Sequence to fold (127 residues):
Amino acid sequence: MTMTEGMIRPDALTARDGQLAVAVHLPWYRSLPISCIESIDVAVDGVRVAIRSIAVPGFTGRLEEAGRSDAAWDLRDSLEVTLDAPARPGTVVPIEVGIAVRIPYIQQAAGVPLVQRAVVRTEFTIP
Fold:
């Protein structure tokens, strides 16, 4: 199994308050601080969409705020990513999720931490 295989699961797409949300699982083998998220990019039907908020137990807010949080992204928890995209129930949409996560305890060079990048493309029917 690769790091990305379990990142987006079959039940990952939901509708919340009329907006799409996607549950993303950590593409790494250990839990990490939420502050290690470098970037998240989501495209719906080929169009990049804005991220309204992200959430894990202990943190809910904007990606820019995650760097100041002490919350951890546990392997067993999904990162709930709420999108600025309307949910149209019954519509089939292609989704692409890209994420970059800094691995603070592995360095590529002196002072340069490893950044694990993963991209998953799949299709969902909006519930």
Summary: The longest helix spans residues 63-66. The first strand starts at residue 13 and ends at 16. The chain has one helix and eleven strands.
